[in-house]
Write a structure and sequence with these properties.
The complex is a heterotetramer, with two copies of chain A, one copy of chain C and one copy of chain D.
Chain A: H1 8-19, H2 21-25, H3 27-46, H4 54-79, H5 87-98, H6 101-104, H7 108-131, H8 137-156, E1 161-162, H9 168-175, E2 177-178, E3 181-182, H10 183-201, H11 203-213, H12 215-220, H13 225-251, E4 253-254, H14 262-272, H15 284-303, H16 308-329
Antiparallel strand pairs in A: 1-4, 2-3
Chain C: E1 2-11, E2 14-24, E3 29-34, H1 40-47, E4 55-60, E5 63-65, H2 70-76, E6 78-81, H3 93-97, E7 104-105, E8 108-109, H4 111-124, H5 141-154, E9 159-163, H6 171-186, E10 190-194, H7 198-204, E11 207-212, E12 215-222, H8 228-236, E13 255-264, E14 268-276, E15 280-285, H9 291-299, E16 305-310, E17 313-314, H10 319-324, E18 327-330, H11 334-338, H12 345-350, E19 358-359, E20 362-363, H13 365-378, H14 395-405, E21 413-417, H15 425-440, E22 444-448, H16 452-458, E23 461-466, E24 469-475, H17 481-490
Parallel strand pairs in C: 3-10, 3-11, 6-9, 9-10, 15-22, 15-23, 18-21, 21-22
Antiparallel strand pairs in C: 1-2, 1-4, 4-5, 7-8, 11-12, 13-14, 13-16, 16-17, 19-20, 23-24
Helix pairs in contact in C: 4-5
Chain D: E1 31-36, H1 43-57, E2 62-66, H2 73-85, E3 90-93, H3 98-110, E4 115-118, E5 130-133, H4 136-154, E6 161-165, H5 171-185, E7 193-196, H6 201-214, E8 220-223, H7 226-239, E9 245-250, H8 253-261, E10 266-271, H9 276-288, E11 304-306, E12 311-313, H10 317-320
Parallel strand pairs in D: 1-2, 1-3, 3-4, 4-5, 5-11, 6-7, 6-8, 8-9, 9-10
Antiparallel strand pairs in D: 10-12
Helix pairs in contact in D: 1-9, 2-3, 4-5, 6-7
The chains are: A mainly alpha, C alpha/beta, D alpha/beta.
Bound molecules: adenosine-5'-triphosphate (2 copies), beta-D-ribopyranose (RIP) and magnesium ion (2 copies).
Chain lengths: 335, 335, 494, 327
Amino acid sequence: MGEPTTDRPAARTAAPALSSLRGFGEMRHLGLLGALAILVVVGLVTRPANFATASNLVSILSLAATIGVITVGATFVIIGGGIDLSVGAVMALASVWATTVATQSFGPVVMAICAILVGTGAGLVSGLLIAYGRMVPFIATLAMLVAARGLAQRMSDRKTQLIQPENSFIVELSTTRVLGIPMLVYIFALVVVLGWILLNRTTFGRRTYAVGGNPEAARLAGIDVRRHTMLLYALSGLCCGIAAVLIMARTTTGSSTHGDLYELDAIAAVIIGGTLLTGGRGTIVGSILGLLIFTLITNLFILNGLNTSDQLIAKGLIIVVAVLLQRRNLKERAP
Amino acid sequence: MGEPTTDRPAARTAAPALSSLRGFGEMRHLGLLGALAILVVVGLVTRPANFATASNLVSILSLAATIGVITVGATFVIIGGGIDLSVGAVMALASVWATTVATQSFGPVVMAICAILVGTGAGLVSGLLIAYGRMVPFIATLAMLVAARGLAQRMSDRKTQLIQPENSFIVELSTTRVLGIPMLVYIFALVVVLGWILLNRTTFGRRTYAVGGNPEAARLAGIDVRRHTMLLYALSGLCCGIAAVLIMARTTTGSSTHGDLYELDAIAAVIIGGTLLTGGRGTIVGSILGLLIFTLITNLFILNGLNTSDQLIAKGLIIVVAVLLQRRNLKERAP
Amino acid sequence: MLVMKGIVKQFPGVRALDGVDLDVRAGEVHCLLGQNGAGKSTLIKVLAGAHQPDEGTIVFNGKEVRPGSPIDAIRLGFATIYQELDLVDGLSVAENIYLGHEHSTFGFVNRAAVRAAASEVLTRLGHPEIRPSVEVGRLSPAAKQVVSMARALSHDARLIIMDEPSAALAHDEVANLFRIIRELTAEGVAVVYISHRLEEIREIGDRVTVLKDGRTVAVGLPARETPTGQIVSLMTGRNVEYVFPPKTGRSAGEEVLKVENLTAPGVFADVSFSVRAGEIVGLAGLVGSGRSEILEAVYGARSASGRVLLDGTPVRRGVVGTVRRGMGLAPEERKAQALLLDQSVTANITLGTLPEFAKFGWLDRKRERSEAKRLAEMLDIRPPDPERPIRTLSGGNQQKAVLARWLLGGRKLLLLDEPTRGVDVGARAELYAVIHDLAKQGIGVLLVSSEVPEVLGLADRVLVLREGTVIHQGEAAELDEHRVLDMIMNGRAA
Amino acid sequence: TSNEPAAAPSSAAPAASTAPAGGNDQPGDKVVIGFSAPAADHGWIAAIAKNAETTAKQYTDVEFRPVEPTNDINQQISAVESLISAKVNALVILPNDGQQLNQIALQATEAGIPVINLDRVFPDKLAYRTWIGGDNYGMGVAAGHYIGEALKAKNVSNPVIVEIQGIATLPLTQDRSKGFADALKTFGFSVTAKQDAQFTVETGNEVATSLLQAHAKIDALWNHDDDQGVGVLAAIKEANRSEFIMVGGAGSANAMREIQSGTSVLQATVTYSPTMASSAIKLARLIAQGKGMSDLVENQVPQSITLASETITKDNVAQYLELGFES
Ligand SMILES: Nc1ncnc2c1ncn2[C@@H]1O[C@H](COP(=O)(O)OP(=O)(O)OP(=O)(O)O)[C@@H](O)[C@H]1O
Ligand SMILES: Nc1ncnc2c1ncn2[C@@H]1O[C@H](COP(=O)(O)OP(=O)(O)OP(=O)(O)O)[C@@H](O)[C@H]1O
Ligand SMILES: O[C@@H]1[C@@H](O)[C@H](O)OC[C@H]1O
Ligand SMILES: [Mg+2]
Ligand SMILES: [Mg+2]
C-alpha cells in the first residue's frame, strides 16, 4: 500500500522550503541538508531494503509530525527572544483534557477544539506572566511545565485515557491515508506551511524578528512589544494543542506522560536549525530540517537495531559538531 | 538516637548565612525566609508529632544534600551568566564511573576521587565548548546532558552498580552519624561554606559577578573572561562529582538513572533564591534557601501523604508567586 | 613619553582611525578634541589594549609596545576611564575599583585592605561620602563616574586616559577632578583628557591634539593660547562648508506639537515649546544636557510630568499610540535603538509603518519592496539593493534607512536625534535636503544635534539647553555659532 | 476499579485455597502499615497503589500510611525514612530500584520494622522479612513458550521475532528478556531485534513505528508491558500490519479486551498482576500481628512468594477479565 506515491510526503513538506530559495542558499541550510544527505546515505548503505521505502518515509514523517508542530511554535518563541519549556507538558495536559469522559461525550470535533483551546490557554498564561508579569521566560515556562504535568496527572487520575470508539474520527487522522499518506502528515505539513507564511509573509512574523532582534528598536518603531511577546507564547500553546490532537491520533490515548522532554528536543531542533537562542534570527525551514535530522537518527538507529545509549551519545556529539560547524560558517555576534 | 542534638543541622547550614548579615538584610532573603517560616508552620500544624523531630530535620537535610551540592555549583555558573543543563547527567556518569568493577578495586578513596575527576572533566569539556568554542551554554550543556547519560548507560550496561562491601566506607558517609547527623550532611554543609567563601571572599568569586554582570567591563579590567567562564563550568562539574559521592552513599549504588531532571530543580532553586538568569547577581544563601523551600515542600507532602500531582501543581504556583514577589521587591533591569 | 604614529583602525564598513599621530609628554595634560565619531574613543581604546590597531606604532618611554589586551596595557602602566561606564552593578564600590587587581593573599580578597584603599582614593577624589561597601548598581550616574575615576587612580599608573570624565559631573565636582589631575601631573604622570567642553580644556590642558574623521588635523597646540575660533574650525573642518538648503519655500502652519512644563526629575525640568507644521525646531546643548530624553518623553517612550499635545489633543504614554497618531523618532543610538541588524534594508525601512503594507496582516511584499526601493533611490542609499541585510551597510547609509522609515505613512511630526551622526560630509547635504523637503511638505520637525552649525543651518527656531533647562529660545536667524557655543559652554543666556 | 483483590481467583491470595480463612481476617491488634511505591505514571503502578489502599481499607485494625510516590530514589529514601521515624508496625515497599533502596530497607529492619518487599527485589535478604512479587524471568519464559509453540505449530523456520522492552535500566526488564530468550532457545529460535521503551504509550508507539519499518515481515512480537502496548497496537494498526502474532505483558484490562475481540494481533498476554499489592498488605498485617497464613502449616508467613506468570489467551480470557487493571 502506498508504494506508487513514494516521494510525496517529502515533496509536500519541502514545498515551503523550496519556494524560499534565498533561505536555502544560506550556508547553514546547506550544512543541514548536507547532514541530512549523509544520514540518508548511511540509511541506504546500512539498510538498503528498509530505509528508502515509501512506508519508512511515511513513518519518519509521522514520527516527526507531533514534535514538528511544536517545533514550529518554538521557532516563533525563540526568534522572538524567548524560550518555552512547557511544550511537552502543555501537550500532555491538552490531550488529557480532550479525552476525559466529559469531553469525549461531545464528539471528536469538540475534543480537538478542546485540546487546542487548552493549549492556547496555557500558552497565554505563560505569555502573560512573561510579558506583563516580567518573569524570565525560562522560569515562567518551567513553572508552567511543572504545573501542567501535575494538572494532567490529576485530571487523568494518572491513567491512560483511551479514545472511545465513537470518537475514532480522531484516531483516523493517523490511520486514514490519502495518496498513501496519513492525514496527520498533511496536518503537520499544513502547520509548517502556515507557520512559514505567518513568519515570512505577515506583519506578525516581521514583528517577531523585530521583537527578538532588538526589542528597544521595535518599541521605538511603535510595536507593542509586550502584547506581541504574549501572543508568541499563545501561538506556541496553540501548536501544543494541535500536537495534542496528533498524539491522540497516533497513540489512541490522552495521557499525562505524553510529550516527556519534548521541550529539549524542540529547542535543540530549533537551535540546530540555525535560530539564535538570543532571538531575532531563524527560519522555520531550518528548524524542520533540524528536527528531521534528529528523527532520522532515531529511525536509523532502530532500523539498525542499535540501542538507546549509543543513540544518546551520538546525539550529543552531533549537536556539538553541528553547532561548531555552524559557528564557523556564520560569523556571529559574540554571545 | 540523636535527640539531644535536635537543632544542630539547621545551625550548621545556617552558619554561613548568619555571618552574611548584609545578605540577610535584603528583601528577597526576607521573602524566602518568610516562605520557609510559613512552610514550617504548615508542618507544625499538619503533622505536629512528626515534623519538628530531630530525625525529620536530619532527613530533610539528607534529602537536600545531593542536589544542594549541585546547586552551589549552579549558583556560580548562573551568576557568571551561563547555565548548566548537564548537572544530573554528569552526576550519574560520575557515579557510574566510580562504581565500575575496575574503579572499585582501588578502594573507596579512589572511587571518590574518580567521581570528582569525572565530574570536573565533564564540566571542563562543557566549559571549553562554551568559552572557546563559543557555543551557547544552553546547547553545549544540553549536548553534555544527552551524551553523559548515554555514556553512563553504556558504561553500566544499564545496570545499577552496587558498591562492594569492601568499599562500604562510601556508604558509611550516609549511615555514620556524628552528633546524630550523618556525615553527608556535614559534607553538604562544608560545600556550602566553601562555596560561600569562594564566592564572597576570593578574587575568583568576586570576578564571577563581573564576568556575568558585565563581561565587557570585566575584560577591560584585565580579567580573562574566557578562562574564567571555562572554570565556572569545571566548578559546576566538580560539584556534580561531589554530589555523585553523596548519591552513591545514599543509594549504595552508581546508576545511569541518578539525578534525572536535577538540572531543572537546581536552576529553579537558584532563581527562586534571587540569582538573575542573566547573570551578575545572586547569592549562595539565596540558592540554598530556595532549595530548602523545595525540599520542605516535598517533605511536607511526604509527611501528609499527598500525591505528586498536587505537589507538581503547588510547585508551579510557588515558583510563579515567589518570582513575582521578588520582582516587586527588586527593581530589576528589564529582560 | 608616549608616541603613537600612523594608527589605523578599521571596523567593518568604517575606517575609524585613518592614520592618527599623538605624542604625550610626562607630566602634561594632553587634550584630545574632535567631533562625535572623530575617533577619539577608538584611539584611546587602542592605547588601552581594548582594540588592536591595523597599522601604526606605539612607543612608550622609548620602547615600542603593543598592548594586546587590557591586561597588557595595565601592566605597562596605562589606566583608562572609559566613556561608557564600565562598572559591574552587582559588586560593591570597593570591589569595582579594585576589580582585576584586588589586594589578595592566595586568592583570598583582603577585604579590609581593599575597603580602606578604596576609601582613601574616594576621599582623594573629594567623595568620602561614597561608601566603599555600597553596591554600585544603587549609585547615581555621577557617583558611578567618580567610581570609574577612582578605579583609574587605584592603579599605580604612569599614563591616565580619561574619555569625557566630566560629562556626568557637576561644576564643583569637575573642580575636584582638576585638583587630582594637577596632583598627578605634579608627580610626573601624564594625562590624556577628552572633553567636548572647551572651557575645561583651557583650564586644565597643556597641549591639544585635534582629530577629525579619524585623522590628526593638529598636533600639540598650546591649550591656553590657541583661539577658540581656530580650535572649533579645526574640529568642524570649516574648510568643508556645511551645505544647507535655503530656508525659503517652507511656511509654518498650524501648531502640531505643544509641550507644556515637561519635567523628568533629575534629567530636565519645566520644558515648554511648540512646533508648527512645516517648521524645524532645533535643540542645541551639550552631551548629557537632556535633549534625547526630551524627545523620548514627547514620543511617549519615557515618563515625564507636564503635557504633550499633538494637534491639540494630549498624547498618552506609549509609543504605539504616538506612532499611530503620526509621530516618528529617529533615535540617537542607531544600533541599539533603531536597527534590526540581521534584517534587510526593506524590513528596516517599513518597520514603523507595517500596517500600511498589509491587508489583514498579510504583507504586500511587492509594494513594500518598491516603496523601499523608491526611498533608497531618493536618499541615495548605497548599495541600492534593498534586500541586503542592513548590517552590511556603512553607518551613514544605515542612518539614511532609519530616516527613510519615517518618510512613510504620512507623518505629522518627526523627532530626529542626531540624524547625521556618523554620516559623511557628502551624505549630510543630502540628508539636509531631505529634512528640508519634509518640512516643506508640512511636517513638523524637532531636531537634536550636537553640531551647532547644523542646528542653525536647518532650524527655523532654536532651543538651547543646559543641564536640563531651556536657557534660550528664539529664531535661528538671530543666532550664530559662537553665541550658541558660548551659551552651551558657559551657561550665559543671550 | 474492576480489580477488586478479594475476587482474586488464582494470584497469591489465600482465598483460592480450600482451607477456611481461619479467622485471619478477624480484627486483631491495631497496626500501622506504611507504604511506599514509585510515582504512578502508568496504569500498572497506579493499580498497585489503588489495590494496596483498597485492601487496607477493608481492615478495621489497619491504619494505612502511604507516602508520596516518587520516581526519584533520593526522595523515596527520604519517604521511607519518614515512615521509619513514624515507627509504623510494618512497611510495604515497592522500590524504584531494589539495589538503591536496599540500605534504607535494612535500616528499617534493624529498627525492628518488618519490611514486605513488593515486586522489585532487594538484593540483601537481611533487608526484608518477606518478598512477594511477580516472576519476571517466568514472564519472559511464558511469552517465549507461547510464541515458540505458536510458531512451531505454523511450521515457521527462522522466524523474525521482535521484542519491545520496558525501561531498559530496570533489572526486571533484563530478567524478562533473559527468560524470553531462554524459552525461545528451547525451540531453536532467537530474538531478531529488540528496543526499549519507557512503559508509556507514546514511547511504545514511537519504538514500534520504526521497528515495524525495520522488519518488513515479522512472525512474532513480545511487548513487555500492556501500558506501552496501547501505543504499540496503535502503531501496528497505523502501519496496517497483521501478519504476526503479538504477546503482551502484565495483563491490563485493555489488553484482555483486545484478546477477547479475536480480531487483534494481540493474541495473548502474560500476567504480572498488580493484585500482588493487595496480598502484600495482607501479609504485612499478618506479620505485624504475629500471625501465620492459616492455610499453610507454618506458624509464620513464608519468606518469599512468587506469583506465577499466567498466560491469558482467547480461551481463558473471560476468567481473567475481572482481574485486569485499567491502563
Ligand atoms: N566596535 C565598533 N564597530 C564598528 N564601528 C565602530 C566601533 N567603534 C567605533 N566605531 C566607529 O568608529 C568611528 C569613531 O568612533 P569613536 O567612538 O572613536 O568616536 P569619538 O571621537 O569617541 O566620538 P564621541 O565624541 O561621540 O565619543 C565612528 O564612526 C564609530 O561609529
Ligand atoms: N536612565 C537614566 N537614569 C538616570 N539618569 C539618566 C538616564 N539616562 C540619562 N540620564 C541622565 O540624563 C541626562 C541627559 O542625558 P542624554 O545623554 O540623553 O542628553 P542629550 O542631551 O541627549 O545628550 P547626547 O548628546 O548624548 O544625546 C544626563 O545627565 C544623563 O546622565
Ligand atoms: O512498572 C512495571 C510495570 O509496568 C510492569 O509491567 O511490571 C513491573 C512493574 O514494575
Ligand atoms: Mg567617544
Ligand atoms: Mg542624546
